[in-house]
Amino acid sequence: MNEAMLKELGVVRDQIDSIDAQLLALLNERARCAEHVGEIKSRYGEAGHVYRPEREAQVLRRIQDLNQGPLPNESVTFFFREVMSACLSLENPLGIAFLGPLGTFSESAAVKHFGHAARLVPQTTIDDVFREVEAGHAQYGVVPVENSTEGAVGRTLDLLLGSPLKICGEVVLRIHQHLMSRETSLGAITKVYSHAQSLAQCHEWLNRSLPGVPRISVGSNAEAARLASVEPGAAAIAGEAASERYELPRLVENIEDEPNNTTRFFVLGRHDAGPSGADKTSLIMSATNRPGAVHLLLAPLAAAGVSMSRLESRPARAALWEYVFYVDIEGHRDEPAVKTALAALAAEAAYLKILGSYPQAVY
Question: Which residues are marked as site: Essential for prephenate dehydratase activity (predicted)?
Answer without folding.
Answer: 263
